Amino acid sequence: MNELHIQKIAGELKLQPRQVLSTAKLFAEGATVPFIARYRKEATGLLDEVAITNIRERLLGLADLDQRRDAILKSLAERNLLSDQLKADIHGADNVTRLEDIYQPFRPKRRTRAMIAKELGLEPLADLLFQNQSTADPQAEAAKFVDAEKGVPDVAAALAGARDIIAERVSDDANARAKLRELFWSEGIVKSKVMSDKQEAAAKFKDYFDWNEPVGKIPSHRLLAIRRGETEGFLMMRIAVEENSALALIEPLFATGKGAAADQVRLAVQDSYKRLLGSAIEVELRMETKKRADTEAIRVFAENLRELLLASPLGNKNMLAIDPGFRTGCKVVILDRQGKLLHNDVIYPTASSNAEIREAAEAVLSMVKKYQIEAIAIGNGTASRETETFVKLLKLTMPIVMVNESGASIYSASEVAREEFPNHDITVRGAVSIGRRLMDPLAELVKLDPKSIGVGQYQHDVEQGALKRSLDDVVISCVNGVGVELNTASKQLLAYVSGLGPVLAANIVAYRNENGPFKSRAELKKVPRLGEKAFEQAAGFLRLRDGACPLDGSAVHPESYELVDRMAKDLNCSVGDLMRDASLRQIIQLPKYVTETVGLPTLTDILGELAKPGRDPRQKFEVFSFQSGVEKMEDLKPGMKLPGIVTNVTAFGAFVDIGVHQDGLVHVSQLSDRFIKDPSEVVKVAQKVTVTVTEVDLPRKRIALSMKAAPQIGPSTSGTRTSPATPRPAGGSFNRPAPSAKPATVDWFTAALNKNQK
Fold it and tell me: Quick one: which of 691, 689, 701 has its CA closest to 638?
C-alpha cells in the first residue's frame, strides 16, 4: 500500500486513514464493493457503498497518476534532461494538470518556429533581450546576428526569431498556464454560432445559433447539446476570455522592464497568447468541461437507472402479458409464477370487425380461466390505452398494469432472448419481457444494456468507458442489495452477483441444469472454477428459500453460521426457532458474541436477518392506472390534473407518462413551489405523481406539465421547452396512430363472459 495515497485519499474524502487503508487492503485481496459494505463493516468503520466506491476510484486515479509520472521520468532520463530539481518537482506534483505543466517545456514537439530560430543561432539574442529589458538596445544587439547565408537576412528577422523563442517559453511556463487557466474558469464564456448556410438543417439546435454563457455556470445538458451540434457540423463552439484581461494577467510575469527590449518581450507575450497559450488553455478547458459534463450526465443516468431497477416488483404470479398492436394484433403470452412461457397467441381487440373483437374477448377470458391468471401486464407502446380499455371492459378482478416496455424490442432481438426462446419469434419474446418486467423489473432489466433502457441524458455523447463503469456499479449494487434466488436466477442476473461474473454464472446454471436445484449454499463449491474466494464474495447474496439450512434463505453469510448456531445453542433451541420466535431473539445478548473480527454492526445485521430472512428492500407494489378517457394528446386540456409516472429525470426537468403516447415535461421551475436546482430532489424515475397540464402544443407534440400547487396555465417560457437536441425519453411512445376500430361495447363483453362461464 502506498502510504501517501492513503493519507491523501483520507484527507480528500474526510475519512480516517485506517478506514481507507482497510478498504484498500480488501480491494487488493479481491473483495467487491457490495461485499465490503455488507460484510466488512468493522474493518471499514461502517463505510457505505458510496464511500467505498469513492476510495476505489481515487486509488485507481492515483495509480494512473503514478504511472504517468513514471513515464515522464523515464522519458526525461532517456533524453538526459532529468535534473535533481526537475525530479523533485515531478515527484511533488499531486495532480495530472500540475504534472503536465511541469513536463510541458520538455515535451517532444513537432518542429516549431522557436526550434527553427534556435537552429539559426538566435537563442542568445532571446536570452539577452529577456534578461536586459531595461538596458539592451534590440536593434544593435539584433544586428550582430544578421547573416544572410545562415537564413537571417536582416535585423527584423533576427528580432522575430528571438520573439518566437520567448513566445514558446511563455507558452511552456507553468505559472503562466496556471494563472491563465484560473482566468478562463472564472471569466471564460462558452460561445456557439451556427455554421454558414446551415440554419435550416440545424433547426433542432436553433437555441444555440448565437449563444453565450459563462463556462463556470453552463449546465451539463447544455454543454453536451452544443458539443453535439458541433460534432454534427452545425455549430461552432469557442471558450474565450477578453484578450486584454488575459494579457494584463500574464504580461507582468515576463515583461518586467521599461525599455525597448521590454517592448520586444511584450510583443512576444502577446504573440504567445494569440498563437500558442490561449488556444492551448482553451483546448484544455474544452476537455475539462466535457469531462465535468460527462460526470454530471452519468450521475443523472446512474440515479435514474437505480430507481428503475429497484422499482416495486409485483412478485411471482401467473401472468397474462400483452404486447399491444393495431394492424398486426396484440401478442399474448402466458407465464407461470417462475416466468416460464406456457402459451402464446395473437388477438385483435382493436380490429374493425366486431367478430374479431368478440373472439379476442373470449380468448382472453378462456386463458384467464385455464391458467388461473393472477395479473395482466400490458406494454405501454402502440395501442396500449386501447388494449387497456378492452381488457378492463372484461370486468376481471386481477390487477391490470401498464408496463414500461422501453428496451423490450432490443431484448427480443438479442442473443440472450434467442438463447432463451430459440423456437419463438421476436414478438413473443417481447411480450414475455413485458410480463417478466412486471413480476421483477430487476431480474428482467439486467438482460439489457443499461443504455438501451433510455433513462439517461446524452448517453451516447459521454465517455463510454466511464458510463459503463458507473452503470455496472449501479446494477451490481442493486442486484446484491436485493439478493438473488440461486435456483431460479438467469445467468445474466447471476453474473452481477459479487464475485461471480459471466463465466461462473454460466457454470452455475449449467451445474443446476445437470444436477437439479441446489440444496445448500455450500453446494456452490462443487461448481467448476468456483473457488473459496468467489464463494466468500458471492454466498451471502445468493438465496436458497427452501434449502436444508434455514440461514441459506437469508443474507447471513455462511462465515457467520457457526456464530448463529452458538446463539441457538445458548438458548437451547434450533436456528429455525430463532428465526420464528421474536421472544427468543429479544433475549440474545449481542455483546456476548463480539470477537476481534465480528462487532456489533455485523451482529445487529444478523439479528435483523433472523427476524426477516432475505427481506426484499424494494417498496411494496401498488397498482397504477392512467386517467380514463384521456388516451391521446387531443384529449388534453390546460388545467387538467392527471396521474402519471416519471419516466426520465434530467438536469432541466422530469418527463412524465400520462397515458397519451407522448411524455410531458415538468420543467425544473415547475417541479416544486420552492426553488430547486436538482430535479432529483423532488422526483425519481418510476415515481407516481399528480401533474397539471399547463400547455399542449399539438403541431410540435409537446406537453407542458406542472407539479406546483397553483401552476401557470397557458403559454410559458419554461414549461414547453426541452433542451435542443435532447433525446426523447423512454417510458412512453411517440407519434402513435389512432385506432381504426370502433370501441367494443360492454354488451359484447358481457355476452362473451357469460358464454365462458357456462
Answer: 691
**Which spans in 107-173 are helix H?**
113-119, 123-131, 138-143, 155-172
SS3 content of the chain, % helix, strand, coil (to 5): 55, 10, 35
* Model confidence band, residue 754 (pLDDT cutoffs 50, 70, 90): low
What is the spatial distance between Cα 267 and Cα 165, in angstroms, rounded to a whole number? 12
Under the banding of pLDDT at 50, 70 and 90, the label for residue 750 is: low
Round to the nearest angstrom and report the end-to-end CA distance of the chain: 77
Domain ranges of the chain: 3-106, 319-455, 633-706
Residue with cell 532529468: 82
Q: How far is CA 133 from the centre of its chain?
A: 55
CA diameter of the chain = 116
Cβ contact 540:555 at 8 Å: yes
pLDDT at 291 over 90: yes
Per-residue model confidence (pLDDT) at position 440: 94
How far apart are the C-alpha atoms of 225 and 725, rounded to whole Å?
A: 6
Strand segments (E) across 509-610: 542-543
- Kindly state the DSSP code that residue 727 receives in the 8-state scheme: P
Other Cβ atoms less than 10 A from the Cβ of 55: the count is 28
- Please give the Cα distance from 142 to 222 (Å, whole number): 52
* Interior/surface letters 111-142, b for 16+ CB within 10 angstroms, e for the rest: eebbeebbebebeebbebbbebbeebebeebb
- Contact between 130 and 136 (Cβ < 8 Å): no
For 322, residues 6+ apart whose C-beta sits below 8 A from its C-beta are 330, 331, 332, 376, 377, 378, 379, 387, 391, 431, 434
736 vs 83, 642, 729, CA distance in Å? 70, 20, 15
Q: How far is CA 200 from CA 195, 204, 226, in A?
A: 11, 9, 17
User: Can you give the pTM of this predicted structure?
Assistant: 0.86
What's the CATH class of domain 633-706? Answer: mainly beta
> What is the rounded average pLDDT of the residues 290-301?
93
3-106 topology per CATH: Arc Repressor Mutant, subunit A (1.10.10)
Q: Which of 332-336, 350-354, 402-406, 479-483 has the lowest mean pLDDT?
A: 350-354
Instruction: Answer for the pair 667, 659: CB distance below 8 angstroms, yes or no.
Output: no
CA angle 666, 672, 675 (to 5 degrees): 115
513 CB-near residues (< 8 Å, 6+ apart)? none
The residue written with cell numbers 386540456 in the block is: 637
**Contacts for 450 with CB less than 8 Å, ≥ 6 apart:** 301, 305, 471, 474, 475
Q: Which of 685, 679, 707 is nearest to 296 (CA)?
A: 679
- pLDDT confidence tier of residue 330, bands split at 50, 70 and 90: very high
Distance from C-alpha of 680 to C-alpha of 364, rounded to nearest angstrom: 40
Q: Which residues pair with 333 in a beta bridge?
A: 321, 344
pLDDT digits (tens, 9 = 90+) for 653-667: 999 999 998 999 999
User: Which of these CATH numbers, 3.30.420.140, 3.40.190.10, 3.30.1300.10, 3.30.70.120, describes 319-455?
Assistant: 3.30.420.140
Q: Which of 178-192, 267-281, 354-368, 703-717 has the lowest average pLDDT?
A: 703-717
Q: Which of 258, 431, 410 is nearest to 328 (CA)?
A: 431
Phi and psi at residue 87, to the nearest 5°? -60, -40
- Mean of per-residue pLDDT scores for the chain: 90
Query: What's the pLDDT tens digit per position in 266-278?
Result: 999 999 999 999 9
Encode pLDDT of 368-399 as tens digits. Answer: 999 999 999 999 888 899 999 999 999 999 99
SS (H, E, C) 696-719: EECCCCEEEEECCCCCCCCCCCCC
148: Cα separation from own chain's centroid: 63
CA torsion, ordered 519, 522, 524, 528, to nearest 10 deg: -120
